[in-house]
Write a structure and sequence with these properties.
It is a single chain. The protein is an alpha+beta fold. The radius of gyration is 20 Å and the shape is globular. It has five helices and 20 strands. A hairpin with a 5-residue loop joins strand 10 and strand 11. The N and C termini lie far apart (40 Å). It binds 3,3-dihydroxy-4-oxocyclohexa-1,5-diene-1-sulfonic acid and fe (ii) ion. The site of 3,3-dihydroxy-4-oxocyclohexa-1,5-diene-1-sulfonic acid has 13 residues, from strand 9 and strand 16.
């Protein structure tokens, strides 16, 4: 995929992957239990206000920051670019398209070098960085791995009122499109876009936005996801499981969705597929195909479509929401749109035990 220069001729920054996220949490100790004791992320650094976490294959300072705040929110999504010169390119490109663009000094985020922060055209707080402190990579520290060893950050999923506009924005940054959910009336319900050579670094979910849908981490193998489920059951904390475990249609990944103590959604994800050739084809799913979200046809709980985390602007204020301008086809009469709560049928018979019949 090739990026398109702006009208001022400035090419977009060369993004290599989703780099880190900052989540605002209301109880740092409760969040520490969830992300460190339960999920097994490694603490690179911590102080009274924040915890800096990384996964076992990661050698940069962190891929997740938990920062204490009064209400849960997304503080920032950060993409790593290919070099410090691409931070400069980001500044030129985003000033060129007229969005709020600010350069921050090294250390503005502990462990991260000089970077550029924007409010992107979709309303999200996004940082572009390269320089970052290196730390020990625990890939083979099996003495420290729990049974659910998380290997790395995989992707962001964001909720936007206009998926098509968000799709245009990200393809303009040179992201490839690996998969979409569409209908026969040219509606796009969701899309998955990538810079690294897997299914996505960012996914677009239709709904009121800007909101964060989830942050996803990868494990190496499915059994590590199942171990997290067993641990939650054993601890009688099973209420943290929102959806799954299961197999996705889109991405083909094996998945589990959790809700952290503040309700932020975290996906644990493994075995998607390679997308690195220039002619990698886009997989298009019909919104009527009940295998799209869960390949085995499992119902998707309503909260997975309706809930998301509010986002901060660059000054820490909550960004107001916009609703989808055009309500999707009224197959379900639900404002989330046809991609949620589909009515499953066999021939002309509705299937009573499927979710769409129950909401
Ligand atoms: O990572 C993902 C891959 C697939 C899906 S879906 O539920 O299959 O649409 C959701 C997701 O964006 O979380
Ligand atoms: Fe995901």
């Amino acid at each position: 995929p090739t990026a398109t220069a702006t009208t001022t001729g400035n090419p977009p920054p060369d993004v290599i992957r989703s780099g880190y996220a900052e989540l605002i949490v209301t109880d740092l100790a409760a969040s520490r239990w969830f992300y460190v004791d339960l999920l097994g992320l490694i603490v690179t650094a911590e102080d009274d206000d924040a915890i800096y976490l990384r996964a076992f294959e990661e050698y940069l300072h962190h891929s997740l920051v938990l920062r204490r705040g009064d209400m849960p929110a997304l503080g920032r999504l950060a993409y790593r670019v290919r070099g410090q010169d691409q931070v400069d390119a980001a500044e030129r490109y985003f000033r060129g398209i007229g969005v709020d663009t600010r350069r921050v000094p090294a250390g503005a985020t502990r462990g991260i070098g000089e970077a550029v922060r924007i409010t992107d055209p979709l309303g999200f707080p996004v940082e572009f960085f390269y320089d970052a402190e290196h730390t020990e990579r625990f890939t083979q520290r099996y003495d420290l791995h729990h049974g659910n060893a998380i290997t790395r950050l995989d992707h962001f999923n964001v909720m936007v009122p206009d998926v098509k506009a968000a799709h245009r924005y990200y393809t303009g940054l040179g992201f490839g499109v690996s998969e979409t959910i569409i209908d026969d009336e040219d509606n796009v319900y969701a899309a998955w876009l990538y810079r690294k050579q897997t299914v996505h670094d960012v996914a677009l979910t239709g709904g009121d936005g800007p909101r964060l849908h989830h942050i996803a981490f990868a494990t190496a193998e499915r059994h590590q996801i199942l171990h997290t489920c067993d641990v939650l059951g054993a601890l009688h904390k099973e209420h943290h499981i929102e959806r799954g475990p299961g197999r996705h249609g889109v991405s083909n990944a094996f998945y589990l969705y959790l809700r952290d103590p503040d309700g932020h959604r975290i996906e644990i994800y493994t075995t998607d597929y390679y997308t690195g050739d220039p002619d990698n084809p886009t997989v298009e799913w019909s919104v009527d195909d009940d295998r799209r979200r869960s390949f085995w046809g499992h119902a998707v709980v309503p909260s997975w479509y309706t809930d998301g985390s509010r986002v901060h602007d660059l000054d820490g204020r909550v960004v107001p929401l916009s609703a989808p301008a055009v309500r999707e086809a009224e197959r379900t009469g639900v404002i989330v749109g046809a991609d949620g709560f589909a009515i499953a049928t066999e021939g002309d018979q509705k299937i009573p035990f499927k979710l769409g019949e129950q909401v």
